[in-house]
Amino acid sequence: MKSLFLPALLLACLTASTAAWAARTITDANGTQLSVPDHPERILVLSELDLDAALALKIKPVGTTNGRGQDGAPRYLGAVGSKLVSVGNFGTPVLDKVIALQPDLILAGGLPDPELLAQLRRIAPTAVTYKLGDDWKAAFARIAQITARDAQAQSFMATYQQRLTQVRSQLGKQAGATVSVVRWNPQGPAYMLKDAFASLVLADLQLKRPAGQLQPGIAHSPPLSLEALNRIDADWLFIGTLAPAGQASSALASAKAMPAFQQLAAVKRQQMVVIDGSLWTSLGGPLAALAIVDDVDKAMVKR
Amino acid sequence: MTARVFSGAEQGALLVVLALLMLALLMLASLLLGAGEIGPADSLRYLLGLAAPAQLPQDMAMVMWQMRLPRMLAAVLVGGALGMAGMLLQTVTRNPLAEPGLLGVNAGAALGVVIGIACAGADVGAGYLLWALLGATLGNGCVLLATRLDQYVDAPLRLVLAGAALSATFHGLTSSILLAQQSGYDQYRFWIMGSLSGISPAALGWVAPAIVTGAALALLLSRALAALQLGDDSACALGHRPALVRTGIACAATLLTGSAVALAGPIAFLGLLAPFLARQCKCTTPAARLLLAALFGMALLLAADIAARLLARPFETPASVVTALLGAPLLVWIARRSSREGLA
Amino acid sequence: MSAQPQVLESGVLVLRWRACSWLLAWRPLCVTTLLAAGLLGAVVLALLVGSQWLSPAVIWQVVQGDASSSLLILEFRLPRVLVAVVAGMALALAGGLLQTLTGNRLASPELLGLTDGATCTMLIALVLSPEGSFGPWWVGPLGALLAMASLLVVSGGVGQRGQRMLIVGIGLACLLRAMAELALSQQSLQHASAIYAWTTGSLAGKGTATLLPLAAGLAVLLPLAMLCRRQLALLRLDVDVAATLGVPVRAVQWLTLLTAVSLAGLAVGLCGPLAFVALAAPIIAERWAGGAAMPLPACALLGGMLVVLADLLGRILLPNAELPAGVICNLLGGPFLLWVLLGKGSAGKRE
User: Fold this and answer.
1) Residue C254 falls inside a structural domain
2) What is the pTM of this model?
């Protein structure tokens, strides 16, 4: 059965992708010139940011990869993400499955393996949508351009700006407060560096980071010594654990039991907010940015 | 140079005294130095009772008794346990490349922790400890069971190979769980580096008895172990039972390594390095060799932990990284120096 | 040696042709043939199996030039399977040589820091590259090569039966691993996971760009390995005895080490650490083939087969993702080695 079915399917796949050829030429994040179909119908997304951006552009991808550091699609994307077909883990998609999905455009942001990229390009035009270190807005704009949905992207960014202005105005006297973003782990806490995704969204909200957390970098700091715990202090302390939030976190409970932790000003003032670590430490994306603004809104405005 | 003046036994005693002195200094340094704002001068005045509490930083007591003291004790326990376990294992297998991790303890502990993270949501020191201990015991149990220690003439090699084989299997299981359950990887990559930071006094209390028992068992069996070195037949003639001795040694090594891994995460290199250093001392008494290995283990880990706090203040450098940074050049230097005599 | 009349053990076949004669032992010969057949079977199976299963007829169609599945079989599966074969062979050979040289079963190329050197350069390339990609194929082997060069410089000699180099290698490996781990813990999760996936020894996405250098390397190093093997058989005796027999001991030791390290470096540099093949394949091959010398051909075939089967299983075990071949090697290689070690008839054997 399968053996008869597959060649036909492959043939269909090849003809489908060649039929939509050569409509537009775009340049991807690596500077590679690519011919992509004018109106791609079957888009396969191979990274979290691509998925986030595609959903923000109202595209329904034919398939996606399992999110990094997560077991399925990211939680903040809700039910939409979990219903999609998965073609494997990020960085190692299963080529058999990719062929079977017959994509006419593949969005492969941050794919580290050039050999794999070459193989994907044998299946369908594959665009590298961002390099590590690109901020999410640039990646989003590029994805919109590659998928020919610039208008939708602009309207989304307008919504985002609107939401920023709204939350900013409601912050009242909290505007300009310092915010510390920390991931707790039993060996010592680490804070997010200045160019990390969450830090960029906080900067959009014109919230300040404490002076100790302004080192450049897109990742998190090394684990801080418990003796230097006052480094994570600020007006507000947003803290997540490495374990997925939602389940009762004993790590956080043990942190709260620690005398040095109880002495933090933010903890004393009860301005400590427990956040979803997988969202706040992710590479981000338009929907993730909105979700972070929502978190800030919930924590700092609606109290 | 001075060593030539002394006879073998005296030289051994001198070395032990020197090592003890070094250990005491390192223990003191471990209490005085930290990554935070409290400096060694204040710490010393506090310890000696030279200053009124008001003159000292307000966190002094907390930092000293809640952070530095447990850390110092943990370094002593873990370092000693790993050093001694390494010496036991290298002696019983007659293989200088054998290290405690080969008993399946480290790999078992890692598997235990990953299962704990993935299935039970373990995310805190005490949770890791429990799962690591469970995994270490199970992993080691499998290895011992697989070798059925008493049946074969060449049991030592079998033990090591079976350990390597099963460790590989546990590593495979660990990776497949991590690849299937990606969220675990983020936690795992911090645990795997090992750290003495954030060890609670309660965890110390749980693990210390196991380490002390293991050490006592090892010292008790050290004579029999030395007899075993002469070959199984000679050992039998001297009234020892080789199979029983080996099982006892394996149990002791498991207790020591399992507890150490549970407490501080895998600190791989120490179990290889400390016995190697101890063997350079040409100490003849088996018990003294075990103790020397333990002393070297303690000193190395204390030094590594102190460096871990100071290298990137106010951040922590993982202890296993510093152990390797300190230990690797030492190992290379000694290997080059002593190569004329042939290693091991 | 052949000039003297000698009593041949049973199971040894003597081939004579004029002044030359060859001794062929039956058992290694049979085992080698069986393993070669097994390897071939594994390769064919690996071409057919995946998340899309094909029937053997499809291979026939592809051979005849039918294009419909040739993309999947010829461009994706075949290069990957061949990479598995060659990498497995190279690692098994390296392990066989090292184990024979040192007389230590634990002496495997992983101990020498090659893998860690390769991981380090991969990480450096990843962090430095403006595209955030792994860089060209030679980055990994370069790391292994650098690790090897520093090993040679630092150890300052082979030492007795290569022991010194092993010890120094272990130290170096620890140092490199520590640095890589430190760097990894400070990377964003994205970088860290990409490298982690690499360190599990995945063959996903491997194609001709990996295959060509790997195969070329093996073609050069295989004859060297076979050359070493003859001399090593004598070195298994005491070093002094071997020297009396006219073996250039130092030269053989150096050649063996360099060959083994280059083989392993190429394989782990290109494919990531396919742990355990180098440890297990020589032991199993020796158990099966018997005989006094390390049966290198059987060992290589077995290594290739192990990696092909591991990769194959990795592709079908999980419904939604692939398990890297390195993981499967560990997972199944362990019990397999145990089974061979503890199996019947092995109890009395010499290690």
Assistant:
1) yes
2) 0.80
